[in-house]
Amino acid sequence: MDPFLVLLHSLSASLSSSEVTELKFLCHRRVGKRKLERVQCGLDLFSVLLEQNDLDPENTVLLRELLASLRRHDLLQSLDSFEAGATARASPGEADLRAAFDVICDNVGRDWRRLARQLNVSDTKIDGIEERYPRNLSERVRESLRIWKNSEKENATVAHLVQVLRSCKMNLVADLVEEEQRARKSQNESGRVSPMT
Q1: Which keywords belong to this entry (predicted)?
Q2: What is the pLDDT, as a whole number, of residue 92?
């Protein structure tokens, strides 16, 4: 069973009806009125946010903000525990992708649309990203990368990302990603050697 869905179910069970009402109010700009009217519990709201790609295991910022606004520190601790476990469970390829995403988000500027198109993100989704993050360029890039990763599944690799960056003439960013990967690899190798010494 998906640990993230188990977490969301647990969080939902801990929310009172008044807290669900508060969450609906806080999400009224993100979620359409009709969808909000159908929300009866936290799980309903989380499902809508999952459908809209506002929430996923790698993107818990919104969930964290919502729980903080409710002042539910107990639920925030559950989220922290999940994230700590997710980092420990992540495969090496997943960790490498996350590191590459960070480098790309920090270094891709206004040409993010060209990168998104090269990653086969549809124009409709690009427009949706722009609407969702009107003033946050880094989040636009991250959301584009997340959509690409979800569509590619196992084929989403750092090597493929570097190839796409080079095809977009973003060679500096591609070099930075490769440099980061080399640093991570050498750090992992030295970490494996050090316990024996």
Answers
A1: Apoptosis, Cytoplasm, Immunity, Innate immunity, Phosphoprotein
A2: 62
